[in-house]
What does this fold into?
Amino acid sequence: MSISGKDNVALKAKMFMSRIPVLKPVRVEYKENGVTKYKTEYEPDLDPFGNPKMYSFSEVWVASSQMLHNTDSFDKTDKEGHYLPNSTLGMCEKFGRANPMFMSMLEKLKQVVDKDSFNIQLKQCLQATMNRSMANVQYI
It folds into this structure.
């Protein structure tokens, strides 16, 4: 009998991971030096009642255990204030360029950086969850 890492995640982390909003890409047209250009921005994807859709815990768990398991800090920055590439927020920033889920995770995780005691505990819980998933990914 084996214990699933996914089933053994702390309640705080599960609640946080199940509250990541779905973002949809929107093509925005703008002018630069008289030339029309386009860029992609993201906005919340809404259900028929106007409420934001959320990624399921399973979707976020799989994505984070596959892509964010190799972090050594949560929010360390360099001298210029940019997140380090091996931090959780740095990796979300990197993968967010190609996957809106990570963009949404980044915005949600930035809220945890505050220094109050609940957020410090949640940050430690999320980092521990990522590190635990690392062992499962590497040794299966």
